[in-house]
């Protein structure tokens, strides 16, 4: 039963990035994040190499990934990935959204939809990931499937379906790009996701802060002193970390 990394080494996929941006819902940072992602995709100017989508729910994200699978799998390897992707050199899912405020240890979470403290908020938390596990199956070849526990709620079962598809998809990297500034850690969340999805998972040490000048022009994301050189049409993740 080979890993995705081994398969990618044998048949390397071409670099591309799909940005999934959290639904704004009156959130200025997420509204600016959408403009930022759209500017990156526009600068790449290749619909096979870069796309921007909307985060609503795990099932909605799953359906979008299924629709994109043929495109991602068909990308040829290139000597130099598109410059606006800021060094992304493999098929990468970029979740641009808010992390839960004040989460230095547990619980940690990502906001997919709604307001952070709203009744309709769709969250992916480390507690929800704890309810998931890997199970050996034949599908028809032997593999490990992401499954939810017997007492899991519908949202957790939905998340299991999403992560299981990520595990089998042509994407080989996942980037948790939290925006909004403040104390919004996702390190533990990233480590748990890396185990479940069989992908390289990256995250930011500090949440990015997006802004606009007096004329309404988007400014490069800020993250303390860790901002990479570039402009608002490039992916500038700041001080990214790799989950181990």
Mean pLDDT: 83
Q: Strand-and-helix sequence, N→C?
A: HEHEHEEEHEEHEHEE
Roughly how many Å is the radius of gyration?
Answer: 17 Å
| Backbone structural class | alpha/beta
| Anisotropy-based shape | globular
Give the fraction of residues assigned to helices.
25-40%
A few lines on this structure:
The chain contains 6 helices and 10 strands; from the N terminus they run H-E-H-E-H-E-E-E-H-E-E-H-E-H-E-E. The protein is α/β, with parallel strands linked by helices and 244 residues long.
List the keywords.
6 helices, 244 residues, 29% helix, alpha/beta
Describe the protein.
This protein is α/β, with parallel strands linked by helices. The chain has a domain at 17-125 and 169-224. The protein has helices at residues 4-10, 28-44, 58-73, 126-130, 154-168, 187-197, and strands at 16-22, 50-55, 91-99, 109-113, 122-125, 132-138, 142-148, 173-179, 200-204, 240-242. The strands form two sheets. Strands 1, 2, 3, 4, 5, 8, 9 and 10 form an eight-stranded mixed sheet that branches. A hairpin with a 3-residue loop joins strand 6 (132-138) and strand 7 (142-148).
Write the layout of secondary structure elements.
Layout: H1 4-10, E1 16-22, H2 28-44, E2 50-55, H3 58-73, E3 91-99, E4 109-113, E5 122-125, H4 126-130, E6 132-138, E7 142-148, H5 154-168, E8 173-179, H6 187-197, E9 200-204, E10 240-242
Parallel strand pairs: 1-2, 1-3, 3-8, 8-9
Antiparallel strand pairs: 3-4, 4-5, 6-7, 9-10
Helix pairs in contact: 3-5
């Amino acid at each position: 039963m080979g890993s995705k990394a081994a398969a990618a080494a044998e048949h390397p996929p071409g670099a591309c990035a799909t940005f999934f941006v959290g639904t704004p819902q009156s959130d200025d940072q997420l509204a600016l994040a959408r403009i930022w992602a759209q500017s990156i995709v526009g600068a790449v100017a290749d619909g096979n190499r870069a796309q921007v989508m909307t985060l609503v729910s795990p099932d909605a994200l799953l359906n979008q990934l299924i629709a994109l699978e043929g495109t991602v799998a068909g990308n040829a390897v290139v000597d130099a990935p598109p410059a606006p992707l800021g060094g992304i050199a493999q098929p990468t899912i970029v979740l641009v959204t808010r992390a839960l405020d004040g989460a230095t240890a547990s619980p940690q979470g990502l906001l997919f939809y709604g307001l952070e403290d709203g009744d309709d908020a769709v969250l992916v938390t480390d507690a929800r990931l704890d309810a998931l596990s890997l199970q050996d199956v034949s599908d028809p070849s032997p593999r490990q499937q992401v499954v939810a526990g017997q007492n899991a709620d519908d949202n957790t079962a939905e998340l299991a379906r999403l992560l299981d598809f990520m595990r089998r998809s042509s994407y080989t990297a996942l980037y948790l790009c939290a925006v909004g500034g403040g104390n919004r850690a996702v390190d533990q969340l990233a480590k748990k996701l890396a185990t479940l999805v069989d992908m390289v998972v990256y995250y930011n040490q500090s949440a990015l802060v997006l802004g606009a000048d007096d004329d309404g022009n988007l400014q490069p994301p800020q993250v303390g002193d860790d901002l990479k050189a570039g402009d608002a049409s490039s992916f500038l993740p700041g001080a990214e970390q790799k989950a181990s």
